[in-house]
Amino acid sequence: MAHDDGWDVVSTLAAVIGHLDVIGIDMPIGLPPSWGRVADTEARRFLRGRASTVFPTPPRSLVAHTDYVVANAMSKREHGRGLTKQTFFLFPKIAEVDALADPDRPDHLVEIHPECAFARMCGSPLPPKRTPQGGAARRDALERHLGTVPARRRGVDEHDVLDAHAVLWSARRFAAGAAVVFGDGERDTRGLPMRIVS
Q1: I need a surface site. Which of 10, 91, 130, 155 has the fewest CB within 10 A?
Q2: Which of 15, 22, 197 is nearest to 107 (CA)?
């Protein structure tokens, strides 16, 4: 987690939720009744050539499942498409974020996709982050906007550190009223906005 006073590794979002005015997070906020949201579609369009980095947001009805076979069958039966294991493994974190997101404070917890943040920062999508060129481009962009970005820390990959700082950059823009928001203003059944900020 990157913040204005530095950065830390925290085990849960609950540990910091009450201490910051705006929290940017790379996790879906606002869960649709069926697969995908307008925000996802717009973010993919913005990331031309890198659209596959934006995963479809799962329906709210699936996220509580802890059994992949059951959740996949339900997705096929009720929504006409299967569930990837990659998305299924995110369910506990999605549920954690959903439980902490407050519809009465919609601007406290904000969904930010790091690739969208980097593309907004640089004017176009960057090469994949795990390539030498992609890693260097991300660090250069961040250091132009945020100053020195710390190196990796034990237990955290460098690309995660860079992603966290990209989220910080967009969260600052959001707090200042300067961010671009993907989405059509729709809210989910809990009243949470279904949007991606960059």
Answers
A1: 155
A2: 22
